[in-house]
Write a structure and sequence with these properties.
Largest sheet of chain A: 4 strands, antiparallel
Low-confidence stretches of chain A: none
Structural class of chain A: alpha+beta
Oligomer: homodimer
Order of helices and strands of chain A: HHEHEHEHEHE
Strand content of chain A: 15-25%
CATH class of chain A: Alpha Beta
Number of strands of chain A: 5
Number of helices of chain A: 6
Distance between the termini of chain A: 37 Å
Strand order of the largest sheet of chain A: 1-2-4-3
Radius of gyration of chain A: 17 Å
Shape of chain A: globular
Mean pLDDT of chain A: 95
CATH architecture of chain A: 3-Layer(aba) Sandwich
CATH superfamily of chain A: NADH Oxidase
Helix content of chain A: 25-40%
């Protein structure tokens, strides 16, 4: 799929069929994620891919906003050994921007592989840490739920370009 | 260009020809950026696009790490009216992850349009605020420098998948 088409047609999908996703496909998605740029090429990330039904069930119980049952969940973690800064610093912000680039790469790659995915930011962190056996240095910053879509949701309402795009300098609107 | 090819061949480009970029092309890039997903569809962003040579020169003076002269610089700003949380909160992290998705979408779109781009996170923030006339609620979280490439840099060394990708849970390595 063409990049611009992928950008235009990708949706956040939250309902899936029970069909599994192959490990090869999941690895391709992680490789897509890890091809995002990172400041100083530090690649401050780790990806934990869950596809065992029992563990998915336990994760779902720690994610209040999730109604559907995905075939896989990928946790995108910040590796603090590679971005060991406090919130509020430019370095910390850059590490999160970097993870955001990995997130979008994974979401787009999933879409081109005919999978539906959504990013989840709200969950019970201690439960996630425990279920994924995360060591101290890995912070689960985002979960991506994935599966074969049973829906193609409408696109969200977008803010008009005139409201978000300025040339040369910002003029109050 | 296919998404997977774009992911695989995109590079951070830091040297450019003097050829300008059209406003139409710049608007397409901003639209690509703004097609990234955002938590609760809040779209907590603004994009300030600079292409006047005088203003580019002033911006360059505020970015110590930049040697080349780009045809355009896009500032990706966090709109704190739409993500009004403090650093260290999950909401703030999600807003930065969202901007990171916009960043990667813009970088990939630039690449498919045969432009070279790089993201810059280190600069003198008060100067940037002043040059772009940013109002209080817009924080310049990232700059993207763009132009027609005079180089196709080698790809960076990537961490092996075995080091960054785990199935089911993290096993110490």
């Amino acid at each position: 799929m063409e990049l611009l088409e992928a950008l235009r047609t990708r949706r956040s999908v939250r309902q899936w069929t029970p069909e599994p996703i192959s490990d090869q496909q999941l690895e391709r998605l992680v490789q897509a994620a890890a091809s995002a740029p990172s400041a100083g090429n530090r690649q401050p990330w780790a990806f934990v891919v869950v596809r065992e039904p029992g563990r998915i069930r336990r994760l779902r119980a720690a994610i209040p906003g999730m109604s559907g049952a995905p075939a896989a969940i990928v946790s995108i973690c910040l590796d603090r050994r590679r971005a060991d800064r406090e919130p509020g610093t430019t370095e910390y912000d850059m590490a999160l921007l970097t993870l955001g680039g990995a997130m979008q790469s994974l979401l787009l790659a999933a879409h081109t592989e005919q999978l539906g995915a959504c990013a989840l930011g709200s969950y019970h962190i201690p439960s996630i840490r425990s279920i994924l056996a995360l060591p101290e240095h890995l912070d689960p910053k985002l979960l991506i739920a994935l599966g074969h879509s049973v829906e193609q949701p409408d696109g969200p309402t977008m803010r008009p370009l005139s409201e978000i795009c300025f040339f040369e300098e910002v003029v109050a609107k």
